[in-house]
Design goal:
Distance between the termini of chain A: 83 Å
Radius of gyration of chain A: 43 Å
Strand order of the largest sheet of chain B: 28-31-32-36-35-34-33
Largest sheet of chain B: 7 strands, mixed
CATH class of the largest domain in chain B: Alpha Beta
Shape of chain A: rod-shaped
Number of strands of chain B: 40
Oligomer: heterodimer
Strand content of chain B: 25-35%
CATH superfamily of the largest domain in chain B: Bira Bifunctional Protein, Domain 2
CATH superfamily of the largest domain in chain A: Bira Bifunctional Protein, Domain 2
Helix content of chain B: 25-40%
Number of domains of chain B: 6
Strand content of chain A: 15-25%
Radius of gyration of chain B: 41 Å
Helix content of chain A: 25-40%
Number of helices of chain B: 20
Chain lengths: 358, 800
């Protein structure tokens, strides 16, 4: 058995010395191949007596297994070393910047319309729409503003050219015509908001020729100014995301509501920051009132049976207040710096469950 | 509307302080815009006596004054030329901040002489621009007393915002009445005392409006006052007029202005010596002109109401008087006018001529028809008091219109409309405090409307009056009851799609802009618009004079502006309206966008390059996909409108006519006209054209996932240059609709080897069997079908 021991030692030292896969393969062939040393010895078993074979067989098998295992282990080690070497060679500078992906944004006006819609949806309102180019009837007459009414001067109206029939269309000066269109197209009870573009022929630091309003209209048999107050308070708390909003209703005048009121919310300037809902200053945020009986009549609704409230609020204005954007004109200037700064991520969809804004 | 506190107290007997008064004004709907309380601001500045004023040892123009302040004697260095020994002046002690300059005084040394405090000018007190010298106080002014009090400058000025319905509050008395109704004191009585005439007026007055418009001027009350002296009006009147921003002119004119603000009663005085014949009211004649009191000459449009004498127009009824008959210091005999003018015609005249006057402001809102004669009497009394003279009998042309209006209110309507529970008796009391004659008869409150409240027409108006005076703070905050048991969406499907379009484009890295609905006519014309029907009659500026026919022109210009600011990559979109006409159905919602510059910033990976038409096409398809349009079924037409590059643009068509979107590079001519550097690519998705499928159920169709291996095979075809990718892919997909799951195009080659005028298009076809694993024979068979279909449809050949 001296033979196998020296063969084992010889082979194992050869394996340990092998530096690449080719050398290992040669060793494998020389030992375990058809004509390899171990295979030769295995073949010699056939000529042995049963007793001899009983002694030599297991030893040979052990030798074969050991050599085979040693070759495998050595091969694995070599593979590992080769992989390490390859990986080392593949090292790159992972601090290199990635390909920049443009961050898209939603405009604050769209975002705030979505926020407002979400809040009013909770109170059972649905969204109604009307055209930007309006007939005089919907924008004025049906809203109890006859042609020579001084209130028309409160609206710096944009006019389109006179039509062949002598009428002139206007760019709607408020979202209130949607009240009339809604009354004429659906039956009470009504509970709608109408956000949209509005236009006045005015341009300075705080006025732009186009701006956005949201109109609200509730018509049923029993809604009164208390509901109007409750609705606006609930809205302001949800929108400005505060627990309490200091608020006052001032009597005012709009031809299409009676009684009419303007709503101020309390505010305080804290350094450069405007705090909404508290403090001793007042900010006017909307006009509102009980729908005028004549307006109901123009909308085909019986004022002896139905009543309700309406209000109109500046979207851009509440966006400025909530998000601290100082200049109205910048809203419509499409300056990328502004859009990226004040805009919202597309994933930031306002919901009541996850928060109106984040 | 401005007035002072003391003026208010002429009509209102009250002990309320300024803050209570102003808070109440706002609370009852007379919104306070500003309060200027000079008395409080100027209180620390007091009367002082200049005991001695001597030349400064080191400066020619300065004086060293010894000043007695009433509590101490201080030395003040003063540069005013009128500073002199023995005068009384206004002293500001050290530590005070001078309102006109904002500087805080401290003891100092001026050219080596100690100075403690300051003698001040009007400008330093913020009273005027006068800075020629220090304020000189009367010799009898008591030392140490606030100078503003001595000069009567401590009368707080209140400015309120009067809504168009409250013409009665364009006079101080109306404001006092509202305050009294709200519990702030008592309204003082103000019966007009008639002034008996001592002679018959020689100036005849007549209305020549027959057959024209009798309503233009129903009544004209006049009277001659002779022997007047027209000097400056008294100091108290001047002070009040100045406080509210009016310039005192002369006693006669000031009286008319004063009553205009005191009683909301516009008046006019004519210099009788300058009249030719009698005064009459008529409408303007063609070609007539008037030199008005504002120094301008107006060509009168036809049909305006004119006051005239035999020589021509004297003034515009209810709007403004004329220069020729105006009163001057030499005037000794006047004709006073107190008339009624039609609101509509007055507004028309003012608007046509662009004249805004206190008279127009009041007449177009409707003045009190029952105070025409009273106004004339009150004015006469003031004129006689101030200017002397004697008054003629009144001359009344026309007649004071009858006033009788009753409004009814069911007492419970206050509660059902406002939520405030007010007993009927309280409502009656509130209305009476406002001048209504009210009583409850048979469960209904009958309210006779006072003549100055032309705005009150019906029940809702009375409810507002009661609630307003009671106070809107009492409105109980009440939650709206739920409208339905079910939670329903607030937006309909189409509105949801419009919102989705925004989110998709922002998610693609684009920035949403909101641009004007207008553009310039020139830009509108470039984008298929510019029709005269959509040009604004009164644009805010020439570059915003037309309704936009597309969302693109404003976006392209915005992209240009941003590029000019140094942005190398711009991607803007807007989801908003475009206008094809002026009817509601001509307005449609478009999701449009532009990309310009490079698709990405410069990057070390070299993955940069200018934007291409395919960027815009991808945007359009992404929107369509998100909005549920079946993009795979769309036909791509190459006839995009003229603002696109004719060879690099397309339209995505559903069926033969319905264009869902268009995209392309913008035409270089358009970019040049808009002065924007290219390339700029753009897309317009016509959201309203996408068919909306209302969902019938929430469940999705069952998933069919085949257990059998899918196979992908590549084919390259040599086709003519005119053959489109769409033709090849369409033909391939149609070859076996059951087996072919998708076709994609992965290579376009038109270099050597494919023949002139040809190109090679390589496609990958994915086969998905559903019933068994495909054999080689199956794949060969379908491959043959694909090749045959493409060759037949395109005239091309499989590339060998």
């Amino acid at each position: 058995m001296q033979d196998t021991d020296s063969l084992r030692n010889d082979l194992l030292s050869q394996i340990a010395a092998a530096t690449d896969a080719g050398a290992l393969e040669q060793i494998r062939v020389s030992a375990l191949g058809k004509k390899g040393a171990i295979s030769e010895l295995m073949r010699g078993l056939g000529q042995m007596s049963p007793d001899e074979r009983k002694a030599a067989g297991p030893a040979l098998n052990r030798l074969k297994d050991d050599v085979d295992a040693a070759i495998r282990a050595a091969r694995e080690k070599l593979d590992e070393a080769a992989l390490d070497a390859r990986l080392a060679g593949e090292r790159i500078d992972v601090t290199l910047p990635v390909l920049p992906e443009a961050r898209g944004t939603i405009h604050p006006v769209s975002q705030v319309i979505d926020e407002v819609t979400e809040i009013f949806a909770q109170m059972g309102f649905s969204v109604a729409e009307g055209p930007d180019i309006e007939e005089d009837f919907y924008n004025f007459t049906a809203l109890n503003i006859p042609p020579e009414h001084p209130a028309r001067q409160m609206h710096d109206t944009f006019y389109l050219p006179e039509r062949p029939d002598g009428t002139r269309r206007v760019l709607r000066t408020h979202t209130s015509p949607v009240q009339i269109r809604t009354m004429l197209s659906s039956k009470p009870p009504l509970r709608i908001i109408a956000p949209g573009r509005t236009f006045r022929c005015d341009s300075d630091q705080t006025h732009t020729p186009m701006f956005h309003q949201v109109e609200a209209l509730v018509i049923d048999e029993s809604t009164h100014m208390g509901h109007l107050k409750g609705c606006i308070e609930a809205f302001c708390r949800a929108f400005f995301e505060v627990d309490e909003v200091k608020m006052r209703f001032r009597p005012s005048y709009f031809p299409f509501t009676e009684p009419s009121a303007e709503v101020d919310i309390g505010c305080r300037r804290d350094g450069g920051e405007l705090r909404i809902g508290e403090g001793d200053d007042w900010l006017e945020i909307m006009g509102c009132g009980m729908v005028h009986p004549k307006v109901l009549e123009h909308g085909g609704i019986d004022p002896s049976k139905y009543q309700g409230f309406a209000f109109g609020m500046g979207i851009d204005r509440i966006a400025m207040l909530k998000y601290g954007a100082p200049d109205l004109r910048a809203f419509f200037d499409s300056d990328l710096r502004w859009l990226r700064h004040y805009g919202f991520s597309s994933l930031n969809v306002p919901t009541l469950g996850q928060g109106i804004s984040r | 509307m401005k007035f002072t506190l003391s003026w208010l107290k002429d009509h209102l007997d009250t002990t309320a302080d300024l803050k209570t008064i102003t808070d109440t004004l706002t609370a009852i709907g007379l919104e306070v815009e500003s309060v200027t309380d000079n008395g409080a601001a100027l209180a620390p500045f007091t009367v002082a006596y200049v005991q001695k004023a001597e030349p400064h040892p080191n400066a020619d123009k300065l004086r060293v004054c010894v000043v007695e302040t009433g509590t101490e004697t201080v030395q003040v260095v003063c540069g005013a030329p009128n500073a002199r020994t023995g005068m009384k002046a206004v002293f500001a002690r050290s530590g005070l901040t001078v309102p006109g300059t904002g500087l805080t005084l401290k003891p100092s040394e001026i050219r080596g002489v100690a100075s403690n405090g300051m003698l001040v000018s009007e400008r330093e007190m913020g009273l005027s621009e006068a800075h020629d010298g220090i304020i000189e106080m009367p010799g009898d002014a008591p030392l140490g007393v606030p100078f503003a009090q001595v000069l009567g400058l401590d009368d707080p000025v209140i400015e309120i915002n009067i809504t168009p319905n409250r013409q009665d509050c364009l006079g101080v008395r109306g404001i006092a009445r509202d305050l009294a109704a709200a519990g702030i004191g008592a309204l003082k009585p103000a019966g007009s005392v008639s002034v008996p005439g001592t002679f018959r007026s020689l100036v005849g007055i007549s209305l020549k409006l027959e057959g024209v418009d009798g309503a233009a001027c129903p009544v004209f009350v006049g009277r001659t006052i002779r022997g007047v002296r027209n000097g400056p009006s008294p100091a108290w009147m001047q002070r009040r007029l100045k406080s509210i921003g009016l310039r005192p002119i002369s006693a006669l004119v000031d009286v008319t202005n004063y009553l205009s603000y005191d009683r909301a009663r516009p008046l006019h005085v004519y210099d009788a010596a300058k009249l030719t014949g009698g005064i009459h009211v008529r409408v303007s004649n063609p070609g007539e002109e008037l030199a008005a009191l504002d120094g301008r000459t107006y060509a009168l449009p036809e049909g305006v109401c004119v006051i005239a004498d035999d020589a021509g127009a004297l003034g515009l009824g209810g709007v403004m008087g004329g220069e020729s008959s105006g009163c001057t210091p030499e005037t000794t005999e006047v004709v006073l006018e107190s008339a009624l003018f039609d609101p509509v015609r007055t507004a028309y005249t003012g608007r046509m001529l662009g004249i805004n006057s206190d008279a127009r402001y009041r007449f177009e809102r409707g003045v009190d028809s029952q105070y025409v004669i009273g106004g004339a009497e009150d004015a006469t009394r003031l004129i006689l008091e101030i200017c002397g003279g004697e008054a003629s009998e009144l001359v009344i042309a026309g007649a004071v219109p009858e006033w009788s209006r009753t409004a009814e209110m069911r007492p419970d309507r206050v509660r059902t409309l406002t939520g405030i529970d007010i007993p009927a008796a309280d409502s009656v009391r509130r209305l009476e405090s406002l001048g209504f004659e009210a009583e409850e008869i048979g469960g209904v409150i009958q309210a006779r409307v006072p003549s100055w409240r032309t705005d009150i027409e019906g029940e809702a108006d009375l409810v507002e009056e009661v609630a307003r005076i009671h106070g809107f703070h009492a409105i109980p905050s009440t939650m709206l009851p739920p409208v339905s048991e079910t939670i329903k969406p607030a937006v309909n499907t189409r509105q949801r799609l419009v919102r989705a379009a925004r989110r998709v484009l922002a998610a693609r890295g684009m920035n949403e802009a909101v641009t004007w609905s207008f553009t310039s006519s020139a830009s509108a014309a470039l984008f298929g618009g510019g029709s005269p029907a959509l040009a604004l009659a009164n644009p805010i500026s020439a570059d915003l004079d037309a309704m936009r026919p597309s969302v693109l022109p404003n976006l392209v210009e915005a992209a240009g502006r941003n590029a000019d600011r140094g942005f190398t990559s711009v991607a803007l979109f807007e989801v908003g309206p475009q206008y094809a006409g002026d009817a509601p159905e001509d307005q449609s919602t478009v999701a449009g966008g532009v990309r310009s510059g490079v698709g990405h910033q410069r990057h070390w990976s070299d993955a940069t390059g200018p934007v291409t038409v395919f960027d815009a096409k991808a945007d359009a398809l992404a929107v369509l996909d998100a909005l549920g349009a079946a993009t795979a079924n769309l036909r791509i037409a190459t006839d995009a409108p003229g603002w696109f590059h004719p060879g690099r643009s397309g339209r995505l068509m559903l069926g033969p006519k319905n264009c869902l979107a268009q995209f392309g590079e913008l035409h270089p001519k358009v970019l040049k006209a808009l002065d924007v550097k290219g390339p700029v690519v753009a897309f317009e998705v016509f959201v309203d054209n996408i068919p909306v499928k209302e969902r019938k159920r929430t469940s999705k169709p069952a998933l069919t996932a085949s257990p059998f291996q899918a196979v992908e095979r590549d084919f390259a075809f040599i086709v003519g240059q005119a053959v489109t990718a769409h033709d090849v892919m369409n033909a391939a997909s149609g070859a076996d609709k059951l087996l072919i799951e998708s076709v994609s195009l992965f290579d376009v080659y038109d270099g050597p080897g494919v023949g002139d005028g040809n190109k090679s298009l390589a496609i990958a076809v994915r086969l998905q069997p559903t019933d068994r694993t495909l054999t080689d024979a199956d794949i060969d068979a379908v491959s043959k079908k694909i090749v045959a279909a493409v060759e037949k449809a395109t005239g091309g050949k499989l590339r060998g």
